[in-house]
Design brief:
The protein is of the alpha+beta class. Helix content is about 50%, strand content about 15%. Helix 5 runs antiparallel to helix 6, helix 7 runs antiparallel to helix 10 and helix 9 crosses helix 10. The longest helix is centred in the middle third of the chain and has 37 residues. It is globular and about 80 Å long. The mean pLDDT is about 95.
């Protein structure tokens, strides 16, 4: 399918990103999976290549590109199966919050370092007893003069081991429900900021994912993003972009997995024929290809809508729900054609299968997406 979103400049950048991925990432990703983190020097190299926070304005150290440059990075990492680098969290979640709601001082201090890879960002929202229901978080920020004293814990924090700071969602007013949530930028070298263990996961082995603990961590009030109590609204505003990026990644994995399977089955022989000669192979892959093409069109439409500032939370939820479901379906059915080889992690399809499951959870579980869509359907009917 010919896509019309990207200009020749975007495609030139894609060539640069693809070359970087092939030379600086692919040969080392298996080692990163064993070490359970991506070395910091890779972040610095990615920053030098212009792959981090592409859309940050020049006034804050960026190149001021449009968001499609970010999309190119997401796509090329996904196509190559590079699930380790937490660039998506850094560029698509952390930087936009700071750019939209950070003080001028916070922007000048952190954004240039994020662009170069000198500072790695994380978002600390999820807690042991609060996942999709962010109103239920227990981490407290009590104001003492010009500081907040923060106590609590977070879990499943991507970039948690590598991060130089985290955007911590905390309750500044426990009695106010959603309106009592604030976001405070907390440097990792602050006394009381403690990293827990690097969590063992069934997939995304190379991506560091951590518990974080805050014990009487004193952070200046000036590090708060936006108004006190405005954190929940901020999170809801940016979740549409996060969900779209999940869909972008997932549709690319679908396309890549189908191509891997076509290439493999065209060469692999069984019972005197290639596996591709069997009608079942052709029918299954034809169905997956048709579904992937349809959702590629929808995903690109969502990207275009987001660029115009018109992507609704409901459409973002639909994209995430459908594309991540298809992601899991494609890698499951494609793996079957590889037989025993599909169970070996040296094959990309095996690693894609292992990494796929998180797509239906991260950025809001599939069930939450259905709630968002369902509420919209019945708005005004109750």
């Amino acid at each position: 399918m010919k896509r019309t979103l990207f200009s020749s400049d975007h495609e030139m950048f894609r060539d640069t990103v693809r070359s970087f991925v092939e030379t600086e990432m692919v040969p080392f990703h298996a080692d990163w999976e064993k070490e359970q983190r991506v070395p910091r020097d890779v972040w610095l190299k990615a920053g030098e290549a212009g792959m981090l926070c592409c859309d940050i304005p020049e006034s804050y150290g960026g190149i001021g590109a449009d968001w499609l440059y970010n999309v190119v990075v997401i796509e090329e990492l996904a196509k190559a199966g590079m699930s380790g680098p937490g660039f998506m969290v850094h560029s698509e979640m952390v930087a936009p919050y700071i750019l939209a709601w950070g003080s001028e001082e916070l922007k000048q201090t952190w954004l240039p370092k994020m662009v170069t890879g000198e500072a790695i960002g994380a978002v600390a929202m999820t807690e042991p007893n609060a996942g999709s229901d962010l109103k239920a978080i227990r981490t407290r920020a009590v104001r003492e003069g010009d500081d907040y004293l923060i106590n609590g814990q977070k879990t499943y924090i991507s970039n948690g081991q590598n991060c130089d700071f985290a955007l911590v969602a905390c309750k500044t007013d426990p009695e106010a429900g959603a309106k009592g949530v604030s976001i405070v930028l907390s440097p990792a070298d602050t006394a009381g900021f403690e990293r827990g263990r690097n969590l063992e996961k069934i997939g995304l082995k190379a991506q560091d994912t951590s518990e974080l603990f805050f014990a009487d961590m004193r952070v200046p009030v000036g590090n708060r993003l936006g108004n006190e109590g405005g954190g929940f609204a901020m999170l809801m505003t940016k979740l549409s972009q996060e969900r779209l990026t999940q869909a972008i990644r997932s549709i690319c994995v679908c396309e890549a997995a189908i191509q891997w399977t076509v290439d493999y089955t065209a060469e692999r022989k069984a019972f005197g024929h290639t596996i591709a000669d069997f009608q079942n192979t052709q029918f299954v892959l034809a169905q997956l290809s048709a579904e992937t093409t349809a959702l590629r069109v929808f995903t690109d439409w969502c990207i275009e809508s987001h660029l115009k500032g018109e992507l609704s939370p409901v459409d973002a939820a639909k994209a995430k729900l459908l594309v991540t479901d298809l992601h899991n379906k494609v890698v499951n059915e494609c793996l079957q054609f590889f037989g025993g080889y599909g169970y070996m992690t040296e094959y990309p399809i095996a690693r894609a299968f292992i990494d796929a499951r998180i797509a239906r959870i991260a950025g809001g579980a599939a069930e939450v997406m259905k709630q968002i869509i369902g509420r919209d359907l019945f708005a005004g009917k109750r």
